[in-house]
């Protein structure tokens, strides 16, 4: 009988051992003094001991010091309840490494309710814990740049505001990269990411160590400055930051530049809470963009009105073409050697129903940001080519070239080259009579695709001019990279010709460089006869400016052409000058 019972118990034990060994999780048994008496394979593996080493070891050896009390309490509870307790702890392996485990403690009592010991069920949850930590990390950090995200930034800001000393200022900067979409679109996904990491690094290096920098979204960052002496300090920091950001970036064999617009908000009456400061910095950043980018703006209350006025303008601009409010003006371009008109630049105007005439500096930035420039630009292109063809038919003997400004957004557009070709065939304009003006900002997407498009445009026979040369980040070496026919020297150099010796030197250098590259040079914004004489002496080919004519409506421009080309009015070269003067007097009247 005894034997039968014994053999029954043995089979039970074998069965239990078998189960113990086959379960995936660690199972161990502890005696009433808390020492290991049995452990299955997964358990010894987890803890890094052999079964022999583990047996006889008190459980305290396998639990991290800071979790001892917790485990002790759980054991007592399980025993008292005659049930089980679960908890998450950090365990210690034999080699001292810690790992997270989920521990379930089951107390064992015999039939007479005598306490026998404990079963410990262990599960390694390090992976789950790692994922949880990662999720928690990404809730507050930007994984790409390792910077805090907007949530964490806000909580730092709130903390800084509550700890701020009475005499310290707190400043918030919102920084948005200019035209980053263009750059990003022209890079591979991985390169775009690398660029953002590089920018984050530049931000880190050009801000005080105490500053907190966050990446809010794609190309927007915030910077928290505490302990400021005042707005001036924030401004000088911004200037430094902008300089640092604008340093050339070497990428895939080419050099390009990134600029940013920064909004500054300083803790004060209008901006006392974190929300107000953040909103104010955003508003100021939009103001900096509207002022022409690559700069900063300090928040003031009137900016809110500007923003709503801008939003209103933007929504109206969307309908301006349908409402027939857009106009093209034409500014004559003169051949400086012959002093005769040789073309015109098409300049867009917006004849707003209520606000009257709006100039490009007010609406082109909005059109570029919203993408409306694509449809507006297409419209200007076809209108200008149509007019140019009319004037060529009126004066077939004359060389006449129409210049049309093209925004980088348009060039990026798929099918742009085809659009130019279609406009030429629809209007019948000889391709050589069309000159597209591009700006150096196309260099931000200075990639093979853009260069290939520019080559394709030139292959149509269309000419290309680089506009506003000398502003922004002009590098004479750009002149060699782009397929160009013409360079237009920016007005800012022309207006100080003879006044600032270094400007004269720059103009001279640009002209001789262009001559050696066989590029024609146009000077913009010539306002006086002295300027035009100097430019002619320096070897400038074409000139444009109020000295000759302001931008004109198509009708006025036709009169201007007539004054020059109609044989009745023009007999000798010097008569032309007199006619211009009379013509402008008429205009002024
Ligand atoms: P831009 O292409 O450099 O055009 C020359 C600007 O200088 C024009 O201003 C013109 O009116 C002005 N200007 C010409 N001569 C003189 C002068 O002697 N003195 C002074 N003070 N100014 C002179 P506007 O028409 O206001 O155009 C400003 C800018 O807007 C243009 O600069 C161009 O970048 C852009 N823009 C104009 N029309 C278009 C367009 O159809 N498409 C695109 N994408 N941009 C355009
Ligand atoms: Mg232009
Ligand atoms: Mg220009």
Q: List all distinct small molecules, including ions and cofactors, that are bound in this structure.
A: ligand C2E, magnesium ion
First-residue to last-residue Cα separation: 132 Å
Return the CATH topology of the largest domain. TIM Barrel
Class by SSE composition: alpha/beta
Q: What is the CATH-assigned architecture of the largest domain?
A: Alpha-Beta Barrel
Shape: elongated
**CATH secondary-structure class of the largest domain:** Alpha Beta
The CATH homologous superfamily of the largest domain corresponds to EAL domain
Major sheet strand order: 13-14-16-17-18-19-20-21
Rg (C-alpha, Å):
38 Å
Could you describe the 3D structure shown?
There is one protein chain. The N and C termini lie far apart (132 Å). The longest helix has 22 residues, at 373-394. The protein is built from 22 helices and 21 strands. Mean pLDDT is 87; it is low at 569-578. It is α/β, with parallel strands linked by helices. α10 (274-290) packs across α11, α11 packs across α12 and α13 (373-394) runs parallel beside α15. The strands form 4 sheets. It has an 8-stranded mixed barrel, surrounded by 4 helices. It has a 5-stranded antiparallel β-sheet with strand order 2-1-5-4-3, with helices on both faces. Strands 7-8-6-11-12 form a 5-stranded mixed β-sheet, with helices on both faces. 46% of the residues lie in helices and 23% in strands. It has 3 domains: 15-130, 2-Layer Sandwich (Beta-Lactamase), CATH 3.30.450.20; 144-300, 2-Layer Sandwich (Alpha-Beta Plaits); 320-559, EAL domain (TIM Barrel), CATH 3.20.20. α17 (478-481) links the parallel β18 (463-469) and β19 (486-489). The chain is elongated, with a radius of gyration of 38 Å. One magnesium ion is lined by residues 345, 405, 437, 467. Residues 467-468, 488, 524 line the site of one magnesium ion.
């Amino acid at each position: 009988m005894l034997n039968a019972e014994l053999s029954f118990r043995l089979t039970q034990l074998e069965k239990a051992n078998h189960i113990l060994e086959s379960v995936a999780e660690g199972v161990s048994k502890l005696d009433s003094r808390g020492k290991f008496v049995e452990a299955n394979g997964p358990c010894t593996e987890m803890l890094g001991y052999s079964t022999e080493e583990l047996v006889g070891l008190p459980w305290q050896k396998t639990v991290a010091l800071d979790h001892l009390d917790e485990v002790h309490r759980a054991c007592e509870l399980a025993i008292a309840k005659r049930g089980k307790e679960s908890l998450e702890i950090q365990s210690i392996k034999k080699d001292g490494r810690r790992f997270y485990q989920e521990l379930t403690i089951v107390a064992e009592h015999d039939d007479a309710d005598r306490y026998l010991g404990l079963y410990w069920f262990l599960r390694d949850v390090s992976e789950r814990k790692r994922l949880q930590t990662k999720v928690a990390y990404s809730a507050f950090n930007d994984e790409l740049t390792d910077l805090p995200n907007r949530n964490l930034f806000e909580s730092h800001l709130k903390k800084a505001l509550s700890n701020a000393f009475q005499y310290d200022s707190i400043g918030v900067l919102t920084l948005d990269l200019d035209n980053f979409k263009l750059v990003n679109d022209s890079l591979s996904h991985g390169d775009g990411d690398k660029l953002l990491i590089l920018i984050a690094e530049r931000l880190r290096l050009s801000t005080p160590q105490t500053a907190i920098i966050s990446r809010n979204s794609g190309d927007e960052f915030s910077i928290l400055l505490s302990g400021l002496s005042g707005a001036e300090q924030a401004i000088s920091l911004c200037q430094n930051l902008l300089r640092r950001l604008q340093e050339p970036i070497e990428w895939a064999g080419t050099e390009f530049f990134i600029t940013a617009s920064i909004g500054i908000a300083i803790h004060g009456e209008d901006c006392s809470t974190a929300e107000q400061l953040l909103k104010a910095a955003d508003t100021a950043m939009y103001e900096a963009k509207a002022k022409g980018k690559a700069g900063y703006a300090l928040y003031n209350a009137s900016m809110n009105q500007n923003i709503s006025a801008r939003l209103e303008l933007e929504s109206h601009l969307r309908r301006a073409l349908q409402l027939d409010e857009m106009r093209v003006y034409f500014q004559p371009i003169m051949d400086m050697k012959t002093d005769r008109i040789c073309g015109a630049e098409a300049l867009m105007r917006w004849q707003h129903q209520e606000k009257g005439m709006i100039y490009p500096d007010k609406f082109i930035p909005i059109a570029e940001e919203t993408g409306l420039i694509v449809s507006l630009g297409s419209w200007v292109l076809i209108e200008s080519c149509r007019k140019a063809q009319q004037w060529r038919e009126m004066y077939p003997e004359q060389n006449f070239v129409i210049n049309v400004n093209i925004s980088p957004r348009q060039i990026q557009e798929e099918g742009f080259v085809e659009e130019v070709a279609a406009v030429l065939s629809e209007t019948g304009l000889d391709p050589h009579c069309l000159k597209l003006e591009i700006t150096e900002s196309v260099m931000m997407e200075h990639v093979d695709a853009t260069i290939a498009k520019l080559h394709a445009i030139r292959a149509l026979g269309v000419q290309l001019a680089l506009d506003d040369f000398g502003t922004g980040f002009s590098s004479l070496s750009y002149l060699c990279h782009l397929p160009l026919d013409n360079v237009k020297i920016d007005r800012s150099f022309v207006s100080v010709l003879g006044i600032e010796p270094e400007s004269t030197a720059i103009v001279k250098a640009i002209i001789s460089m262009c001559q050696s590259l066989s590029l024609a040079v146009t000077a913009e914004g010539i306002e006086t006869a002295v300027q035009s004489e100097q430019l002619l002496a320096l070897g400038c080919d074409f000139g444009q400016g109020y000295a000759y004519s302001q931008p004109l409506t198509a009708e006025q421009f036709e009169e201007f052409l007539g004054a020059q080309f109609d044989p009745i009015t023009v007999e000798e070269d010097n008569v032309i000058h007199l006619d211009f003067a009379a013509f402008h007097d008429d205009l002024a009247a």
